[in-house]
Amino acid sequence: MNRIEVSFAAWRQTGHKALIPYVTAGDPRPEVSVGLMHAMVEAGADLIELGVPFSDPMADGPVIAHAHERALRHGVTLRDVLDMVQSFRQKDAQTPVVLMGYLNPVEAMGYEAFAQRAAQAGVDGVLTVDMPPEEADELIQALQAHDIAPIFLLSPTTSLTRAARIAAKGRGYLYYVSLKGVTGAAHLDAEVVRERVESLRHVVSLPLGVGFGIKDAASAAAVAGAADAVVVGSVLVQALAEHQDEPEQAIRLIAATLAAMRSAIDAREA
After folding, report:
1. How confident is the model at residue 184 (pLDDT cuts 50, 70, 90)?
2. Cβ contacts of residue 206 below 8 Å, gap of 6+?
3. Catalytic residue among 60, 124, 135, 147, which?
């Protein structure tokens, strides 16, 4: 069991709902990322999804797509992202870290070389948005050999039959995309999410994290009523965009947002 599995097992025992922030590595500047990761943990994050910059992030809306562009302008590569995780691990050996991105950089490095380097850096899971689970066996094998969890997406249009097949290939947790569309999409109906998550629980045993459309403490708490984890991204990345020249201010805003979400989720648990 890696950090993700150990953590979710402990959280299930206590009824704790995980808060999972997403940020793009290297945004707005490479030197900001590690400190931001630590600040998010201090504010209540339980697991971090760290985006790997890519030139064509087709699943992402404008906010996160622009974050990829900012990071790429600074020349941030997959190797740089792994170095950031390794630096983060110098002070934090407990918080799970998942790399979230697209297949091309991983394929260019080579599956085995990537998995080996990721394990050395302290990566716990990998989610490649554009890798269909049905075509992922070679990557899964490389990740599993280094105790890294292959994590997959489910969507509102994923059938229960296919969801069960996807879950059989995954580890750690499943990421349920609550909305049709790209990251940062507008409206989230918590009741629809609850019904969908309940139906998925009949066919999958992995924890379910829910993301897309979570913008504030109220929406985070509403989703936490059904999910095992709440994933929040665009609202955090927007703070970085608005304060590119004042990254410390952006970090304070992100920490405040996460702290409010953590408090709202915990109040619902109580």
Report:
1. very low
2. 167, 170, 171, 172, 173, 174
3. 60
**Do 59 and 129 meet the contact criterion of CB atoms below 8 Å apart?**
yes
In the chain, domain spans: 3-269
> Which of 5, 27, 46, 49 does the annotation list as catalytic?
49
pTM as predicted: 0.95
- Judge whether 60 counts as a catalytic residue: yes
Structure tokens at 126: 């990998």
Contact (CB, 8 A) for 19 and 220? yes
Query: Which H/E stretch holds residue 208?
Result: strand 208-211
239-267 burial code (b ≥16 CB/10 A, e <16): bbbebeeebeebbebbbebbbbbbebbee
Question: Which residues share a beta bridge with 176?
Answer: 154, 210
Q: What is the pLDDT of residue 180?
A: 57
User: Under CATH, to which class is 3-269 assigned?
Assistant: alpha beta
Residue with tokens 């059904």: 226
pLDDT in tens, 62-102: 999 999 999 999 999 999 999 999 999 999 999 999 999 99
